[in-house]
Amino acid sequence: MKCLAADDFLWQHNLQTLQCLVLLIYAINHAQGPAWSLLGTTLSIAVAIGCHVDPALLNVTFVEAEERRRAWAGLMMLYTIQNTCLGSIAPFEITNNVQLPMDMEDDEIMSRSLPLDDLTIVDPYSDDRPPTKMSYVLFKFRLYRLASDICCLTSSQTMPQLDQIRNLNDRIGAEKRAQIRRFHRHPDLPIYQRAHSFILDNYTNHLMLLLHRSFLTTNDSVDPEIISTGYERCEQAAYAVLSNYENLHARQEFRSYSWYTHGIGAFHAFFAMSTLLVMLGQTKRTAASKQVIVQAVQSCLGKIQEATPFSEICNRAYSILSPLVTGNICQSDTSPGEASATPASTGSKDASVQFMAMNAGEECEIFDPNAWPLAEGLEQMISKIPCEQWLSSAGFPWADALHL
User: Fold this and answer.
1) Which residue range forms the structural domain that includes residue 359?
2) Within-domain flag for 118
3) What's the pLDDT at 256?
4) Which of 33, 134, 179, 188 could cross-link with 28 by S-S, CB 3.0 to 4.6 Å?
């Protein structure tokens, strides 16, 4: 901020000032700091220098065009995150015609000589290239649009139409397949790309849980086959979230991503654990399958407990779930080197099997899964709290959840 102030950024606007402000807000936001007060100023600067106009309509070079699009995309992403924190499902709208930035590396942009109108747009759902530094942002834009559509569908008082659920489920599946092509088929990706793969996969599975959670507490009027499918998708998505979270928590190369495991990642794990506990208390399962759920929840809750001194989200999640889990928290014997290198949802058709393999060395306290005391409020928390409040810990009613 001192450097920006020395540059008179409030009066002398330029693209470099805008780029610095966007990066600064991201950094403060990751540190759980008060960043939103800067957002309005940053938007005003962006509009003042014309970033709300697509560069194809301006007399600028290809490099500057991509710089402008990237800065505007970053700003719109920040506004989307802010809206989510405030519990708003509507995407941030401002009159603009700016295209998303190209999925290119910096050196590709520098070597480009084609006019903007001659660029070929690659279909994101058929692209097999390794991910670029922009791929993560472009994936997140599509996932945020999906989140908005899911919230709009599930916010109605009636059970959504089956074809609507199938459509959204197919879109989630398309995103998963696109992530597999871009990330998981390229084993030698840098660490930050592997971390992005875990984060994207967890957000995608979080959306799967939000879409199908209504089938966990639905009445008998719904086709049993539909309910069974909803249970299966929720179970696999929840296991995948917990497995990915433990990978990011345990492996040394991901230590710099504690902003995620102490923040939104912990919140996603909280939702996944709560979902599994509701399923454990409701469904007729074998003792072995129930034990897998117990181990998964206990293992992940142990990781959440470790982070409670550093994270208010972890502290709240642990306070809610720990009284519901009988016995001491099991600590995983899986070393960081043994953890899966790819997101759980892609390593096995049945995520519960993969999770069982990851935690095979655990020995839990004696626990009778057939006598699971499902807290009435836990079921209500999963099914009744509006979808948009499950998108961000800032918009979640923690006070109500603490009184299960």
Assistant:
1) 135-401
2) no
3) 92
4) 33
Residues with Cβ within 8 Å of residue 361, at least 6 apart in sequence: 332, 333, 334
Question: Tell me, what's the pLDDT at 328?
Answer: 39
The share of the chain scoring above pLDDT 70, in percent, equals: 78
Q: How far apart are CA 74 and CA 68, in angstroms?
A: 10
Amino acid at 336: P
The amino acid that residue 145 corresponds to is: R
Using CA atoms, how far residue 128 sits from 35, 132, 163, 301, in Å, is 36, 11, 30, 36
Residues in the chain, total = 404
Two tokens, residue 19? 């780029």
Structural domain includes residue 178: yes
Complete DSSP assignment for 24-64: HHHHHHHTT---GGGHHHHHHHHHHTTTTS-GGGSS--HHH
Which backbone phi and psi does 10 adopt, to 5 degrees? -75, -20
Q: Which residue has the higher pLDDT, 264 or 154?
A: 264
What pLDDT digit, counting tens, does each position of 277-309 carry? Answer: 988 876 666 777 788 888 899 999 999 999 999
* Same-domain check for residues 229 and 272: yes
Cβ neighbourhood burial of 273 (10 Å; 0-12, 13-18, 19+): buried
- Together in a domain, 94 and 141: no
Average pLDDT, the chain: 81
Residue 219 and residue 325 in one domain: yes
Number of H helices, E strands in the chain: 17, 0
| Separation between Cα atoms, residue 394 and residue 36, nearest integer Å | 13
322 burial type by CB count under 10 A (0-12 exposed, 13-18 middle, 19+ buried): middle
| pLDDT beyond 70 at 51 | yes
CA-to-CA separations, 139 to 204, 211, 291, in angstroms, rounded: 10, 19, 35
